[in-house]
Amino acid sequence: xxxxxxxxxxxxxxxxxxxxxxxxxxxxxxxxxxxxxxxxxxxxxxxxxxxxxxxxxxxxxxxxxxxxxxxxxxxxxxxxxxxxxxxxxxxxxxxxxxxxxxxxxxxxxxxxxxxxxxxxxxxxxxxxxxxxxxxxxxxxxxxxxxxxxxxxxxxxxxxxxxxxxxxxxxxxxxxxxxxxxxxxxxxxxxxxxxxxxxxxxxxxxxxxxxxxxxxxxxxxxxxxxxxxxxxxxxxxxxxxxxxxxxxxxxxxxxxxxxxxxxxxxxxxxxxxxxxxxxxxxxxxxxxxxxxxxxxxxxxxxxxxxxxxxxxxxxxxxxxxxxxxxxxxxxxxxxxxxxxxxxxxxxxxxxxxxxxxxxxxxxxxxxxxxxxxxxxxxxxxxxxxxxxxxxxxxxxxxxxxxxxxxxxxxxxxxxxxxxxxxxxxxxxxxxxxxxxxxxxxxxxxxxxxxxxxxxxxxxxxxxxxxxxxxxxxxxxxxxxxxxxxxxxxxxx
Length: 491
Known about the structure:
Elements: H1 2-35, H2 41-51, H3 63-76, H4 82-86, H5 105-116, E1 120-125, E2 127-128, H6 133-136, E3 142-151, E4 160-168, E5 172-177, H7 178-191, H8 211-230, H9 232-235, H10 238-245, H11 249-260, E6 272-273, E7 277-282, H12 284-345, H13 352-428, H14 438-442, H15 446-449, H16 453-459, H17 462-490
Parallel strand pairs: 2-6
Antiparallel strand pairs: 1-7, 3-4, 4-5
Helix pairs in contact: 1-3, 5-13, 8-13, 12-13, 12-17, 13-17
């Protein structure tokens, strides 16, 4: 027996060692692809958590699944810029000098005060988004997912589920798989930066054909589509319009192929607007709005989780209560039978009043129990999906706010660095160190420019100044989009 136990313990130790090696393989792959690749680990953790409830546990994923998720993440996210990685290393004049520590709290407060001084607003041209029929009758548009259909696979294909979508008043009826929804959202994120793209439910494995799961997913996806129609950019995008209207299978396959090849838009003049222009704004009003919005979503996040949990408990409580009420109704029914039998056995002194009371009580408690069951159904079909959707939508707002904050920090830090460097260069008085081309220097009156500090600061360090303006415009874009999109979604 000891020998058998020792062999058993040895097998367990071997399994644990193998599990440990596999875990280390997974973690090493993630370190190389995410951390060393320059991607934000916080974004990746959120991405994995949205993919499945236990997504942050590396042991629940196979190495192949992790590789697929990393590839999906890279298609919808971008690594930190060189500026972001280098912002905490080296001084502004010599990148090989001793590295400095990340900004402390006083430095960040200084950046915030610097941001308060910035006032900037301009309209810039961009690509014009043609209006779709959805925009023309937007208040009349009704979207329903009528049902889901399970489609059996063949020799070369797996079984799958498709959702039947009806859009009125156009009477468009299309069938879309969950992977089509996922592709649509990923494409919208790439092509329309700064827009709050509504959430879809995370991918789940092992429950794909369970009816309760599919019903919940159907409700969530219907909310996604309705929220898309509420956005002027999304409802006028050709990708969403085709998703809702193209029923021909071959045409839809061609459109999906185009969507899969979509390239992420980064330049402001490549972005889209129904009016062909975008407003870039930096002001204190938007800054305060962003701070208040962040406080709200951070405050609301745990409350939505709590409401989902409490709604589930409420359903359990309603079910217990309805069972108690039905038991009481059954007791009243039995009492009615017995008093009725007793009354039938006597000629004088029949108690018909008591019979009527038991009938009334039975009917009342049955109706009360039915009401509890209706409340369970309401909670299951409306309340829990609503809180779940709002929780996921809250994460979309968080991402908008995070992107605005990122570009704001990058712009302010770079601006402060360039301003300090320009100040030193002007005090030095050596125009040859202003990093200007010979052609740019040729047009300068050196003696005169050294007397005019304002003009000198404008012309020196042209490349770094151009990058400053580029970062300013990006921050101003996301700053205004954050303000516009959060107000629109909450309005």
